[in-house]
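Re: that backbone. Tokens:
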């Protein structure tokens, strides 16, 4: 089944496959949650000629993503236990992939390398990958999934053909949520759609992580300020004492969305809102590599929102 917004990427991909010389490196760019990873795997399977309906992994598709963060977590993975992931894709993973490129593909004449997300490559890993992109083995194709392409080295971007994945209209998002998350009430769906900014995956995550109350707490702080710190305490409690990385990322993206919505329409002074949004962008960028303390992060988000509260007054209000 083709996901919403994937028609044009599929047209470009299949046109390239049918051409005389297909580009060896592709950058799949778009918001987190629009299905780029699913596309990468399906496109790789089509490229190497995997049989329709063939289950399991394929020996000629190599996928690099977050691995265990250390040897202890590696042992847990080997034992089939839950393990804590690293916050980046490391050079050892790139080296291991490159070692495999010295051999022929197992079942055919093509091999696909998926890196998801490529914008979380360590600097040394990115430099190592660049060498493979500069001199790719015959029959090897790279699919780099990127939520924030600007974080990639310019030299990597310049060697890739870009496939852009669009966001989804609010009406389509609402239809999807009604169909796939029937338990979500109208206010939750509306908040999820606003927070997701066109990303179906982000909208479903909003519902699954029950972020509706978090969104309302953020809005309360923006509306009322928080001189007594009670609202910030409420926000911290809703975020949780030990949120995992996915919840922290979702909360940061939600905060950015809540703040960005205040820019729709005239504000008496938009600068505090713009400054707050910039700070939230910075925190979001640091989140993959910094080990944030959940309580301190929640208070920092709340403080940024409280500082921006005065800017919610409309210019004509």
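Recovered sequence:
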């Amino acid at each position: 089944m083709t996901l919403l917004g994937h028609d044009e990427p599929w047209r470009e991909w299949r046109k390239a496959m049918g051409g005389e010389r297909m580009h060896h490196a592709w950058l799949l760019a778009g918001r987190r949650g629009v299905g780029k990873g699913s596309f990468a795997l399906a496109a790789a399977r089509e490229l190497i000629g995997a049989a329709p309906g063939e289950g399991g992994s394929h020996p000629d598709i190599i996928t690099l993503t977050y691995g265990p963060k250390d040897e202890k977590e590696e042992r847990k993975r080997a034992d089939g236990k839950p393990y804590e992931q690293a916050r980046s894709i490391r050079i050892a993973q790139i080296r291991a992939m490159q070692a495999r490129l010295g051999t022929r593909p197992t079942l055919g004449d093509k091999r696909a390398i998926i890196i998801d997300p490529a914008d979380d490559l360590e600097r040394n890993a990115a430099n190592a990958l660049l060498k493979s992109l500069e001199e790719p083995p015959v029959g090897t194709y790279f699919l780099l999934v990127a939520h924030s392409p600007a974080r990639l080295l310019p030299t990597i971007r310049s060697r890739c053909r870009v496939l852009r994945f669009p966001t989804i209209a609010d009406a389509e998002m609402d239809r999807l949520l009604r169909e796939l998350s029937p338990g979500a009430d109208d206010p939750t769906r509306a908040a999820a759609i606003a927070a997701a900014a066109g990303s179906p995956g982000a909208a479903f995550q909003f519902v699954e992580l029950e972020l509706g109350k978090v969104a309302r707490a953020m809005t309360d702080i923006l509306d009322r300020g928080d001189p007594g710190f009670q609202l910030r305490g409420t926000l911290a409690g809703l975020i949780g004492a030990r949120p995992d990385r996915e919840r922290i990322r979702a909360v940061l993206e939600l905060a950015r969305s809540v703040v960005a919505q205040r820019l729709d329409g005239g504000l008496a002074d938009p600068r505090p809102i713009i400054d707050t949004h910039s700070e939230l962008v910075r925190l979001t960028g640091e989140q993959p590599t910094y080990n944030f303390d959940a309580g301190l992060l929640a208070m920092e988000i709340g403080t940024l929102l409280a500082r921006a509260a005065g800017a919610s007054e409309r210019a004509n209000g």
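The mean pLDDT is 88. The beta strands are 25-29, 61-64, 111-115, 140-146, 161-164.
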